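Worked example 2:
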Amino acid sequence: MTAREPLDRRARILASAAALFASKGVAATTVREIAGEVGILSGSLYHHFASKEAMVDEILSSYLDDLRARYAEVLARDTDPRVRLRNLVLVSLQTVEAHPYAAEIYQNDVHYLRQFDRFGYLTTAGNDVQRTWLDVINTGIAQGAFRADLDPTIFYRLMRDAVWLSVRWFKPTPEYPVTRFADDCTSIFLDGLAAPRR
């Protein structure tokens, strides 16, 4: 066995676990099922992870750390609210692409997971994400770039769910890449569907 094999196996375990957690839910997924997907005995799984929760923790914390780092880059480089909003959409989608299943696990199981002390960071991460979006939206309102008659929190929640839940149906293609989806999503939310009046 090479030194690389345990790392590859660990990555395969995490990938299989993430797929199961996303499709069945964390509570309904057993260690035996995860081990079966990878082709090892349940006991062998504990050589790589202390528990099922440790796997969930690694999947979600890695995803959320990456998401917040990408948001920080957007805020550091972009100043125009519309560009910032579009780039928040884009990096959200790119982060989902880099962490298959994590967004779906978060959406489906965040309330269940919050009951465990080790997942207390999910509340903090959720608050950070919301604050980032609301800061961009409120700055846009203050600068006159976005409408002031709409509740920023409602707008944020609608846009967030449209973006994050798209993981269930949107699959980028060469003809319709993630960058175009980000552009279209932003345009629909900011400009609407109606054709401009002549």
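The chain has a mean pLDDT of 91. The two ends are 70 Å apart (CA to CA).
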